[in-house]
Amino acid sequence: MKRIAFAIAIVLVAAFIGAGTAGKSFAADSAPTAEVNIDNFSFAPATIKVKAGTTVTWTNRDDIPHTVVANDKSFKSKVLDTNDKFSFTPTKPGTYPYFCSIHPKMTGTLVVE
Amino acid sequence: MPQRDHDEILFDHNHDGIDRRGFLKCMAWAGTGALCIMSGGVMQSYSLGAPSAAQQAKGELAFVQISDSHMGFNKPANPDVVATLKIAVDKINALPVAPEFMLHTGDISHLSKPEEFDNVDQILKSAKPSTVFFVPGEHDVLEENGATYRARYAKNGQGDGWYSFDKKGVHFIGLVNVMNLKPGGLGTLGKDQLEWLEDDVKHLSASTPIIVFAHIPLWTVYPEWGWGTDDSARALSYLKRFGSVSVLNGHIHQTMLKVEGNVTFHTACSTAFPQPKPGSAPSPGPMKVPAEQLRSVLGITDVSYVVKKHALAVTDSSLE
Asked: Is the pLDDT of residue B258 over 70?
């Protein structure tokens, strides 16, 4: 009995945290995030604007490996095979063009405000 | 050296079984391989399905090109790239003219992993030609600026692994155009390699047949997909004075042939998976075909150089 009660408590706490995140009342705990998809040899969105401190995550949805490399080399992923992810949290505002170093025709821009 | 006009299509001057229609059929078929004869400075392509043509293809020098084995790739376009590479080796071993060596024009591996290279090396050991000359594809130099590739395949190469060698009077040049790629750009040879190339061919007589092999095409096939090399024009300028230049590439996983002046460009099929025709799909990603058709879109390229026989078969392939 005791174990079940404990389990229910956990579920309730989890639900509370979930609701809190959705309601933005846990701003201090949940860092802002942004997503970029790599699909069909392109970055989507091609230009992404985020606030400094936002964690940007690229996910490779292609059957072919890609990379995410800033033109100024300020960030650089390892090789991302299918469904691999790369995250980067920019701190300095600026415009960061980047590309796939394997398929350099693939380019994107990260704008940090 | 016969005179040819730009983009002019000449065919079957030697009555050896290939005409333009035959070649296009060969391209469409592109399946178990294409047999190419270097002759009088011009490359001829045959379907390996035409044994009479293949048997005529006796030259002083025969070699075979394979490309894009992508060892480690396991997606639906071809879940078993080991099996298809083995089939390619079987085809090589069954060629009527035994090739003296092999050229691998890159993307040996899919992710530059040592075990992927090991696997290819192991499979190629069962091929009759024991020597393989490699150039890297972009998939072979994913880590540490291609250190693994260089240590394995280009120990004696210059710079990023380029080199040249001579076989029976033919000068072979293996180039690297997959390193230090620039944002928004195509394949790149780079200043150091271009200078080396200029020097490498400086002392050769203009009658020396030249065969250049590199991964990414040295002519602009389709820049929107990165199918070309930014500074290839400069490389080709050093080869202008030669009567016979053949360029063998991979990367685009389909056969194409183009003649421009004294230069014949040819791309080989992959042994792993096909890619779409330029612009025919949203991206150059692997083209999925029904399993029973897969082998028909993969292949090898056999090349035989005939010095004395002045045959001529030039085929210009459009980017259709």
From this structure: yes
**Does CATH place domain B20-306 in 3.60.21.10?**
yes
Q: Are B87 and B299 in contact (CB under 8 A)?
A: no
Alpha-carbon gap, residue B255 to B29, rounded angstroms: 10
Closest Cα in chain A to B79 = A63
Nearest CB to A41; choose among B75, B185, B283? B283
Q: Do A97 and B139 touch (CB under 8 A)?
A: no
- The tens digit of pLDDT for each residue in B122-148 reads 999 999 999 999 999 999 999 888 999
Residue ranges of domains in chain A? 1-30, 31-112
Residue in B77, B143, B185 nearest the CB of A104: B185
Q: What are the residue ranges spanned by the domains of chain B?
A: 20-306
Question: Nearest-CA distance from B79 to chain A in Å?
Answer: 12
Contact B183 A82 (CB under 8 A): no
Question: Which residues in chain B are closer than 8 Å to A76, comparing Cβ atoms?
Answer: none
Which of B78, B113, B138 to probe the A interface (max A CBs under 10 A)?
B138
**Is B286 in contact with A82 (Cβ distance < 8 A)?**
no
Task: State ipTM.
Answer: 0.77
Would the CB atoms of A64 and B286 count as touching at under 8 Å?
yes
At the second CATH level, the architecture of A31-112 is Sandwich (2.60)
If you compute the radius of gyration of chain B from its CA atoms, what whole number of angstroms results?
A: 18
3 state SS of A93: coil
